[in-house]
Amino acid sequence: MKFGPETFGELNAEDYDALHDPGTTDESVELIAEIAAGRRTLELAIGTGRLALPLAATGLEVHGIEGSPLMVAKLREKPGGDTVPVTIGDFADVDADGTFGHVFLAFNTLFNLTSQADQVRCFANVAKRLEPGGTFLVETFVPDAERTRSDQSLRAMKVGFKSVWLEAAIHDPVEQVIEFQRMRITEQGVRLVPLVMRYAWPAEIDLMANLAGLQLKHRWGGWRKEPFTADSRMHVSVYEKSVPVA
Ligand SMILES: C[S@@+](CC[C@H](N)C(=O)[O-])C[C@H]1O[C@@H](n2cnc3c(N)ncnc32)[C@H](O)[C@@H]1O
């Protein structure tokens, strides 16, 4: 399954806001604003502006990178959407103007880079764009050890009177890649919405950060700074670029 930076938007932009609400936007905005602390901020994969627009509304200078012009078109339609500078491109390149005090990458989107090499490249390029003392916040799920033991799955996501949404997945444990096919079956027909994710464990993400010269400063099990434990299903991790000793 071949996924480019624009593919997610081509498949999802039309109904992204309606179908992809993680239910954590308010607390995410609060924590990102606290960590950004008024510094120039960049969101990788800004999407339709779910986080960037409320952050910009607080007075924070927020820039974005996004692979899908269709997602950015949705952002532009919203109040304040014409004021956020967005570069169209692959977020692994982190090709935006200038340097930033804070960069963030939310909602498992690191895993939309479908190889370890691209994820490592992303961290290296973020480090180049960060000012000394700058921070990089990453939110991803913690891979489910039980699920990653099987090489395939099929599950019902939503069952209605005249519709059913199914999700089939093939798992490659060597590359840590899961290919999903979501099937929305209605009386009108079948809509296919594929997705590829290359998952990484928190320790591997820390190593990518370390290779780029970033150190883990905080790890929480949720946006409300819940402790990160063996039971945590997701993590919000903040990495810091050190300040050179004079
Ligand atoms: C799950 S959405 C997250 C959007 C937004 N950050 C949010 O939290 O609502 C993933 C986003 O990543 C973008 N994307 C995926 N791969 C990309 C890539 N390689 N370069 C740039 N954008 C990419 C998609 O177009 C989509 O907007």
Automatic annotation (TrEMBL):
Signal peptide: none annotated. Residues 42-134 form the Methyltransferase domain. Pfam families: Methyltransf_25. InterPro entries: Methyltransf_25, SAM-dependent_MTases_sf. Gene3D superfamilies: 2.20.25.570, Vaccinia Virus protein VP39. This is Methyltransferase domain-containing protein.
